[in-house]
Amino acid sequence: MSNVPAVRHIGVFTSGGDSPGMNAAIRAVVRTASATGIRVSGILGGYDGLVHGQLMELGARDVSNIIQRGGTMLRSARSEAFRTNEGREKAAGTLKVRGIDGLIAIGGDGTFTGANIFFQEHGTSILGLPGTIDNDLFGTDRTIGFDTAVNTAVEAIDKIRDTASSHDRLFFVEVMGRDTGFIALACAIAAGAEYVMLPEVPQRIDQLITALTEAKQSKSSSIVVVAEGDEEGGAFEIARKVKECHAHFDIRVTVLGHLQRGGSPSVQDRVLASKLGVAAVEELCKGAHDAMVGEMNGRIVLTPFQDAIGKRRRLDPDLLRILPILSV
Ligand code: F6P
Q1: Nearest-angstrom CA–CA distance, 13 and 284
Q2: 45 lies in the same domain as 116
Q3: Where are the beta strands (DSSP E) in 205-298?
Q4: Model-level pTM?
Q5: Is 10 in contact with 39 (CB distance < 8 Å)?
């Protein structure tokens, strides 16, 4: 006989910035739980739904026809109320009243910070699934949504390349990534960009200008991918600084923004979300808690929330090394 108390009713929610594949993860959680006779409640609007008691019971058929949809059927938010003790007390009250004994939170670092605090304060069994386009969580090779976001951004940059080369222009394309450059680096490699500006790698404007001046000798147009969190500023600011030194550069700026967050999830994101959603329910039933369920080298791995948010994931040094070789 196992000492692990049986899980009878799971609550699932999406929180923070949405990401393509969140729906596929919800579907996997609901169907896995249903198959084992566990009730599932979808909590609406992230932690806000827990605080205000906004839930809906979900069965296997309620998650039909969503695997291919971007966004999240449960909606998402960055909850202010849950940041307060009072809010978390109310959230714990909701779980008690509804008889929910396990939670699955789909989101990024902010979501897991909240989950970790909630576990410490109320002992709630809670597991996380990495749902963010940023790919910045320690303990998983990929986050749900990253692959789709990068594909969307690269498709856009390919189009910008057409017009850039027609007009001999220098384009600065800003991609998302408030604190990290995973999206920017992958886009730069995949779209054949001439240069990339990343928050993790301190680069000065004069280094960028030297690279662009060299590039100008052999090619008439260039693309610089800028991560929104770069310390030299966003794409507009960096473009302004370059123009100050090189008035003759014909410069344009495109900020891709939230279009990177939407759209039908890629196969890779659907498969990842499905695997992780199933694993989260199975692990919760085995008694796992206070951890993120990720995938590393093709295997399911549990990483304590404190490590998932506290340890810094490094950019792939190989990608950093090959970009200048390939962008000549
Ligand atoms: O964390 C995901 C993310 O898309 C970041 O890349 C971006 O900086 C941020 O969310 C934007 O947040 P919001 O949708 O609240 O403007």
Answers
A1: 15
A2: yes
A3: 222-227, 251-255, 291-296
A4: 0.97
A5: yes
CB of 21 within 6 A of ligand 1: the answer is: no
| Shared domain check, 112 and 246 | no
Token representation of residue 16: 């923070």
Any ligand 1 atom below 6 A from CB of 17: yes
**CA-closest residue to ligand 1 atom 8:** 178
96 and 189 share one domain: no
Q: Which residues of the chain register pLDDT less than 50?
A: none
Q: In sequence order, which residues have a C-beta less than 8 Å from that of residue 173 and are 6 or more positions away?
A: 156, 157, 160, 187, 193, 223, 224, 225, 226, 235, 253, 254, 255, 256
Active-site residue identified among 48, 109, 134, 269 = 134
* Length reported for the chain: 328
In tens, the pLDDT along 41-94 reads 999 999 999 999 999 999 999 999 999 999 999 999 999 999 999 999 999 999
Judge if 157 and 133 occupy the same domain. Answer: no
d(CA 269, CA 112): 20
- Number of independent structural domains in the chain: 2
Q: Are residues 128 and 184 in the same domain?
A: no
pLDDT computed for residue 1 by the predictor: 52
322 falls within a domain: no
Verify whether residue 134 is a known catalytic residue: yes
Of 46, 177, 53, 52, give the one whose Cα is nearest residue 115.
46
Q: In CATH, what number is assigned to the domain containing residue 156?
A: 3.40.50.460
2-45 pLDDT, tens per residue?
Answer: 677 789 999 999 999 999 999 999 999 999 999 999 999 999 99
The strands making up 55-58's β-sheet, listed across from edge to edge, are 55-58, 39-43, 9-14, 102-107, 126-130, 291-296, 299-304
CA 20–ligand 1 middle distance (angstroms): 13
Task: State what percent of residues in the chain have pLDDT above 90.
Answer: 93
* Contact by Cβ (8 Å): 149, 176: yes
Give me the pLDDT at residue 283, please: 98
The answer to whether residues 256 and 161 belong to one domain is: yes
